[in-house]
Fold this protein.
Amino acid sequence: MRPARARRLAAASVLLTLLAAACTSTTAGKGSDSATPTAGSGRPSGSTAARPSAPATRATFHDCASAFNLKALPFPAGRAKRLSFDCARIQVPLDHADPTGRTISLQLVRVHDSAGSTSSRRSLLVNPGGPGASGVELAVSLAAQLRDAVLSHFDLVGFDPRGVGLSSPITCLTDKQKDDVNAASPNVLTGKGFAAARTIAKRVAAACSRKYGAALADYDTVQTARDMDLVRQAVGDGSMNYLGFSYGTELGAQYARLYPSKVRALVLDGAVDPLADDITSFANQLQGFEDSFDQFAAYCRTTSPCSRLGDPREAVYNLARKADPDGIPSSAAGETRRATSSLVYTGVLQALYSQSLWPTLGSALRTALAGDSREILALADRYNERNDGQYTNISDANNTISCNDARPGPSDATIRATARSWKERFPIFGLWSAPSLFTCQQWQPHRTPPPAPKAATARTVLVVGNLHDPATPYRGAKVLTKTMGNARLLSWDGEGHTSYLQGSSCVDTRVNAYLVSGTLPATGTTCPR
């Protein structure tokens, strides 16, 4: 779950450098999906103890390098010419409890470095989080960022999880409807705002149920973890090597719970707390973002031109007041939207995922206070995955998976009480995030909450936690390490979301050693800032 309306965890910030996959043709291995279930298809699984799915067939890969904007990626000298990019689609059961029933398709990409040994090559499956972010895009992005030692040892394999991107995507709302939802700024502490927030959530839930029917219930974390084992089989690996960020840690932990004997190496970076209830997890994130804003504010007060804002918190409050009710216009060519307070807060939140965005946030606040929302809208669009007026399906997939993973509720009374509490505890993000409490209240009723991921793996799992991670607070890494049972925690005294490939050679060296040779960092290792 993530604050700020979408209730999702952030995709790992390593994706910030990747630009776009254009896998929309109907060529084999790159095609648009025609297997998306329609209303009335499928049935809710309701069970986490489904019998094993039928064995997967080997994936047939085809060259698809032309589908990606590879020139936009910062490859080290000489690397790009050594790499091949191949795509495939595989079929998996819509419901793993019914392995011979209806199927859906998953999109895969494999990145191969010709410098490595082919005979001993394994695959490294990767996931960026969300839920709803593209593993295909992450694999392509990582091809420019990982060390040669890792790329020569592994083929990178990315997959769009079920319901995401090019894998039987869930799409409930039009782009215009998403614009309206993202701009809405209901105050749930008022009668009118409470009713408006509930109505918005009801319309979204109804749109998804109307389009997908009973099949909607089969898009959840446990089903996706089972898909991952079919991906492992489809690429011909006898054991699983996995790198998961943010929500991807939840997928990896569930995989280890379901298939402990298949685990060779699992890196879980930016861990979701597996034991916290939804509202507690949400509140922990809000506290993380409030703390991150304090760190930004300290930077801003002493750094020009950001220091010209004065008190950064007051600047945000003033900007939010300025934005409602009429919105702040933008000077961007062709832009007709006006920044509401909701879009202002979204832009602020996006910039707190990475310290590298702090200068951008300072400039965006100054420009918006002067009457031009161009920069703050650009930050909000980055969060919402909106480009040239078109959205990816991350919000549709996120709502679907998050709500299918959630227990029913919360009640109206709980929402009111929580909103009052959050307004006081989290002065920037609390009241603004409260409408998200309605997201799953009226969702379809067949839910599959992921069990606690105690995993009797023979090999030790590596959990990585950032002491100052706003999106997945450090406590989650400690809890996940303890809950799994056979796991080692690597900590980083850093800033921003996740730790690996975020500028710490201490973290990167230890993660790489674990992936390649299974070498674990010493117990209690904390890498310096």
Notes: The longest helix spans residues 278-301. Residues 39 and 213 are 4 Å apart (CA to CA). Residues 1-50 have pLDDT under 50 and may be disordered.
